[in-house]
TrEMBL record:
Pfam families: NAD_binding_11, NAD_binding_2. InterPro entries: 6-PGluconate_DH-like_C_sf (IPR008927), 6PGD_dom2 (IPR013328), 6PGDH_NADP-bd (IPR006115), HIBADH-like_NADP-bd (IPR029154), HIBADH-related (IPR015815), HIBADH-related_NP60_sf (IPR051265), NAD(P)-bd_dom_sf (IPR036291). Residues 165-284 form the 3-hydroxyisobutyrate dehydrogenase-like NAD-binding domain. PANTHER family: CYTOKINE-LIKE NUCLEAR FACTOR N-PAC, OXIDOREDUCTASE GLYR1-RELATED. The lineage of its organism: Bacteria, Pseudomonadati, Bacteroidota, Chitinophagia, Chitinophagales. This is 3-hydroxyisobutyrate dehydrogenase. Residues 3-158 form the 6-phosphogluconate dehydrogenase NADP-binding domain. It comes from the Bacteria. Keywords: NAD, Oxidoreductase. Signal peptide: none annotated. The active site is at K171. One of its GO terms (molecular function) is NADP binding.
């Protein structure tokens, strides 16, 4: 099996890296906090001291980091040079469409192909390889990385064409829709409770009939159980970052998104209260508190 570079073994990157190692790939891993990647050495990972050391000339490097700034910090000139002619950089991060387009142009000038492949999955779904990937970039590179994405986390892969930013737009759309669903469910459950209806009975009826998707089943249960804090797999801070990116993209395309403004404010309130270890589901607490619950 080929050697792949892997940058970023956080809550989501770790299970993906683990899956790839179990599938037989050799990984050269860089993580800003080295200690968090140490257990992967037991599976055969090679830990290196810089982003560029992950690269094999003409090979593939996967990056999965927190935001635009972190992506720029690892997608250095040194990394691109180390990848060299024919190399592929696969960005699995939730970042702005703009940064993907900028990096795509920069890489192309140096003979390296950039593919955006943001991950649709919480860590447990990635570990079970039942996540979804959306990919955009040059066709040949997308075909070459398909097996890697499937081995790492993806049950389904959706191709968004050649424009590097398109996959990131869809990823932001998806996260916005999840945030909107969190707000909607919190308001609906508050309405039930305030009117003498058992919210759990309402949840069971609605999520086994009209709203049977995993977002409603899984996140709805978290809202009912008030599982808003404690070892979040997707933090309120990252949720706010994503809503900021949604609204940034909306402003640049003159797209009104009033619900995005609301959930952005909900997340800002959570962080303003200095709630520690808040999952982004904590945005639902705003509707509950507004209802006196």
């Amino acid at each position: 099996m080929e050697t792949i570079g892997f940058i970023g073994t956080g809550h989501l990157g770790y299970p993906i890296a683990e899956n790839l190692l179990k599938a037989g790939y050799t990984l050269r891993i860089y993580n800003r906090t080295r200690e968090k990647a140490l257990p992967l050495e037991q599976l055969g990972a090679i830990l290196v001291g810089s982003p560029e050391e992950t690269a094999v000339s003409g090979g593939i490097v996967l990056t999965l980091v927190a935001d635009d700034h972190a992506l720029q910090a690892v997608a250095t000139e040194a990394l691109v040079k180390a990848l060299g002619q024919g190399g592929i950089h696969v960005s699995m991060s939730t970042v702005s469409p703009d940064i993907s387009r900028e990096l795509s142009a920069h890489h192309r000038e140096r003979g390296v192909t950039f593919v955006a492949a943001p991950v649709f999955a919480r860590p447990e779904a990635a570990a079970a390889r039942v996540g979804n990937a959306v990919i955009s970039g040059p066709a040949a590179a997308k075909e070459k990385i398909r097996a890697i994405l499937e081995a790492g986390f993806a049950k389904n892969i959706f191709d968004l064409g050649e424009d590097a930013g398109s996959a990131n737009v869809l990823k932001l759309m998806g996260n916005f829709m999840i945030a909107g669903a969190l707000e909607m469910m919190a308001e609906a459950f508050a309405l039930a409770e305030k009117n003498g209806v058992d919210p759990r009975a309402a949840y069971e009826m609605l999520t086994t009939t009209l709203f049977s998707g995993p977002v409603f089943r899984n996140y709805g249960a978290m809202i009912l159980d008030r599982k808003f804090t404690g070892s979040p797999s997707f933090s309120a801070a990252l949720g706010l970052k994503d809503m900021d990116l949604v609204l940034q993209t909306a402003r640049r395309s003159h797209t009104p998104m009033p619900l995005a403004n609301l959930v952005q404010n909900r997340l800002t309130t959570i962080l303003a209260k200095d709630v520690h270890d808040a999952d982004w589901t904590a945005l639902a607490s705003g509707a509950l508190e507004d209802a006196g619950l």
